[in-house]
Design goal:
The complex is a heterodimer.
Chain A: H1 4-17, H2 19-29, H3 34-52, H4 58-72, H5 77-91, H6 100-118, H7 128-143, H8 148-166, H9 189-207
Helix pairs in contact in A: 1-3, 1-9, 2-3, 2-9, 3-4, 4-5, 5-6, 6-7, 7-8, 7-9, 8-9
Chain B: E1 3-7, H1 11-22, E2 31-33, H2 46-56, E3 62-66, H3 70-80, H4 84-87, E4 90-92, H5 97-109, H6 114-123
Parallel strand pairs in B: 1-2, 1-3, 3-4
Helix pairs in contact in B: 1-5, 2-3, 5-6
The chains are: A mainly alpha, B alpha/beta.
Chain lengths: 209, 130
């Protein structure tokens, strides 16, 4: 990937542009703060990255993002995405470019972090319902010898299907679990923000391939 | 004496619980609030919780009382970020936050160890209202 700081700017723009969508989704089954929280987190990420001038070390940039999200998001997505970025940072340590193999390791590490922190598994109407199928699709593309942008496209398509799937299931984690069966019919805000992040990375990778 | 940290999404709730539980405290007992975000908004901040745990520790460990949802996750993340020496002497109470904090403060004030303070806080679940 060409430049980590430019890529992160694309992520931040995507989250901030979808602030209202995420908040609307969360107001249906949660505490109406996901979009506001995520946008605040990524605004802070933007400011921190600009101030830190952390260069092109992808691991260092991702670590700074993780730390910033932990202290600025506020809701459950703070520790979850924060841990995800910190774990991905370890997989990308010392790198200034990302190849397909590294991207797979980063995604795997990020998902592992979310599972550890949230004690969740797939099928509970969470971000994992977007991210785990995305990882499987990415690895499948990699096994077929596809390039990074193509692997990311496959991952994003699988994440989109995962978001659709969350409409059909009952939430058993987080605030939405208080709603029980009434959570059916609504797509999960966390799965949606995970999809948005993946889609943004994919767009960036395609444009800069 | 075991230190107590109270984590809530709301700074006012955390401070209020510390004030209430503080009525039962021994002189010098550490009861630290870690509520809300740095900017004052509703939410939890793992770094704020980490700092509160370090402040609350007087050498005998710390019990962390939490409200709901991300408070648990942020507290777990805060503990993960602590130094190895302190990490093993911090526990999250499986307890109602108000009753648990008061029970924990009383038990800690008489010099009970962390395992006892945590069990006493958890026992506050059984304090029926009727």
């Amino acid at each position: 990937m060409a430049n980590i700081n430019a890529a992160i700017e694309v992520l931040a723009q995507a989250i901030i542009a979808n602030k209202e969508l995420l908040t609307d989704l969360d107001s249906a089954i949660g505490d109406s703060d996901h979009g506001i929280n995520m946008a605040r987190g990524f605004e802070a990420v933007r400011a921190k990255l600009a101030a830190a001038n952390s260069g092109d070390d992808i691991g260092a940039v991702l670590k700074l993002i993780g730390m910033t999200l932990i202290s600025t998001v506020g809701g459950a997505s703070g520790p979850l995405y924060g841990t995800a970025f910190l774990r991905a940072a370890v997989a990308a340590q010392g790198k200034t470019a990302i190849d397909t193999d590294t991207a797979a390791k980063m995604l795997e590490a990020a998902i592992g972090g979310i599972k550890d922190r949230g004690k969740a598994v797939r099928g509970e109407k969470t971000m994992l319902d977007a991210l785990e199928p995305a990882y499987a699709a990415f690895v499948q593309g990699m096994a077929e010898g596809q390039a990074l942008p193509a692997c990311l496209s496959l991952a994003t398509a699988a994440a989109a299907e995962g978001v659709e799937y969350t409409k059909t299931i009952i939430a058993t984690k987080g605030r939405a679990s208080y709603l029980g069966e009434r959570s059916i019919g609504h797509q999960d805000p966390g799965a949606t923000s995970s999809y948005i992040l993946l889609a943004a990375v994919t767009d960036y990778a395609k444009a800069n391939a | 004496m075991v230190g107590i940290v109270v984590v809530s999404h709301s700074a006012k709730i955390a401070e209020g619980i510390c004030e209430l539980a503080g009525q039962m405290a021994a002189p010098g007992q550490k009861i630290i609030a870690a509520g809300g975000m740095s900017g004052g908004g509703i939410g939890t901040d793992a770094f704020k919780i980490q700092a509160a745990i370090e402040e609350a520790n007087a050498g005998d460990g710390v019990l962390v009382l939490v409200d709901l949802g991300s408070a648990v996750m942020s507290a777990e993340l805060a503990i993960d970020m602590l130094g190895d020496e302190l990490k093993d002497r911090v526990a999250i109470a499986d307890a109602p936050i108000v009753e648990g904090a008061i029970a924990a403060v009383v038990d800690a004030s008489i010099g009970q160890p962390l395992v006892s303070v945590a069990a006493t806080a958890a026992g506050a679940r059984e304090l029926r209202k009727k």
